[in-house]
Design brief:
2 copies of one chain form a homodimer. Chain A is elongated. By secondary structure, the first copy, chain A, is mainly alpha-helical. The N and C termini of chain A lie far apart (66 Å). Chain A has a two-stranded antiparallel ribbon. Chains A and B meet through helix 1, helix 4, helix 5, helix 6 and helix 7 of A and helix 1, helix 4, helix 5, helix 6 and helix 7 of B. Chain A binds a DNA duplex through helix 2 and helix 3.
Chain lengths: 192, 192
Amino acid sequence: VARSDQTQTAVLGALSIRPMTGYALREQILSTLGHFWSESFGQIYPALAQLERQDLVERKVSGSGSSNFAVTPAGLARLRELLAEPPQVAKPRNGVLLRLFFGRQLGPERCRELVRERREAAVRSLAELGRARAEVEADPSLGEQADYILLTVSAGEHSARSAIAWADEALATLDQLAADHRPADGTRGGTR
Amino acid sequence: VARSDQTQTAVLGALSIRPMTGYALREQILSTLGHFWSESFGQIYPALAQLERQDLVERKVSGSGSSNFAVTPAGLARLRELLAEPPQVAKPRNGVLLRLFFGRQLGPERCRELVRERREAAVRSLAELGRARAEVEADPSLGEQADYILLTVSAGEHSARSAIAWADEALATLDQLAADHRPADGTRGGTR
DNA sequence: CACTGCATGTAATTTGTTACATGATTCA
DNA sequence: TGAATCATGTAACAAATTACATGCAGTG
């Protein structure tokens, strides 16, 4: 039964916090979980259908078309089982670092752009995380769960801050490299 | 021609640093590039074959079976083209944070384990990066490329250090949560 | 001569993404 | 009534992993 365990975990987990529609599930995964997890649209409904067949989630059709999905007791047990399994590490694929690694072929200016963009992304991410933190802290319905969620928010914040610090360092290094590359660029030397 | 651009980039890039066999390429990607990039074994040879058909790499068969792959001038041009394309961001999939997010279902003790393992992984990673840094700094054949490679090493170091800092913080929080969870665990209170 | 490591490849399967198709509800 | 958003799903395609199959070279 080791098929799409990871997707099942995410879906069951999200529904364990509160029942919702598949659409809301997707929004949730895009916003809150999105900082460290992603599911593509085309996976959520098949996963829900599969979970329903296994009686791990229940669907309550409300009025027209739309349905509300909730975890069953068996689903909760399954979730605990899945969470207890060792997390399989995602193979890293960092396009920015790949490009920087071969930066000599790309030139210092382009590299600076990449790093600057990375920095801006981290700043945006930090702002989003701040908003997420505030939301979680303000939601009394989460109860004890809030502490755990804030742990993951904090992980994102640490990571974003470290990305910013690295970017600043890298930009300084790249400035140096660019300067070495064209030592006689202006009419005069000096720092101005 | 937007097929497996990413893999092509990694393969061409690695070969641009120095020509090598497919096997060595794999080792390279596992060790040096491995900190932020991964290619599965089954992708490298097909990618090489494809690149050869496009005259982007050249194969020099040496003695028995094994061949040495080198980038052609056209390949170098292609590499520059690929590097100039905007990096496509990898969808994040952090199994540890996913589990922590639903930590209430898992319990504080299990969460502590996860975080401790994460911390240890980061410590190991930091050590590996230190070794990689020393290797790069000691290799005079890399020339200007070394500066760019060190930039990526530095990114890894920043990220590992931030992971350690986060883990320490998280462990403290989890201790607190565990204590709250069973307020009357021993025969007496106090810190022992 | 058996074992380990180097080396090259293929096939089957699983996963994941993207685009498409459809329809209800809400609001201007 | 038209547009935007909510909502559910499918099919085709692209990518990635894994396991398998093969053989040479050096070494104890």
